[in-house]
């Protein structure tokens, strides 16, 4: 493989291509970060995360504030729940959503607070 000399020297200095590959996180960790970034890639999902990080909320309140259809809200809640940054807890006929500790950390990281 032909590569620019400065890049080749830097790679060799740092232990070679194999060492560069070994420094990458494990595949499952990369997949996890990919899921989280996907969950955070929608302004609507970010709004939901901000709301449930401030206090647990039922679906009806989230829907009322965001003015979205049931199916759209369900889709976005599913992505957020699937990524592990929010959780839904059944309380009687209600599902109450709240941010997980990881979700709260995401909000702190995004907002700098």
From TrEMBL:
Residues 25-113 form the HTH arsR-type domain. It comes from the Archaea. The keyword DNA-binding applies. Pfam families: HTH_5. This is Transcriptional regulator, ArsR family. One of its GO terms (molecular function) is DNA-binding transcription factor activity. Keywords: DNA-binding, Transcription, Transcription regulation.
């Amino acid at each position: 493989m032909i590569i620019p000399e400065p890049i080749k020297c830097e790679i060799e200095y740092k232990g070679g291509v194999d060492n560069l590959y070994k420094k990458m996180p494990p595949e499952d960790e990369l997949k996890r970060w990919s899921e989280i970034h996907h969950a955070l890639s929608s302004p609507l999902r970010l709004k939901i995360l901000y709301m449930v990080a401030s206090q647990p909320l039922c679906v009806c309140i989230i829907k009322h504030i965001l003015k979205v259809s049931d199916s759209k809200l369900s889709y976005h809640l599913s992505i957020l729940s699937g990524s592990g940054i929010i959780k839904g807890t059944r309380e009687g006929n209600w599902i109450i959503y709240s941010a997980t500790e990881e979700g709260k950390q995401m909000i702190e990281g995004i907002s700098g607070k």
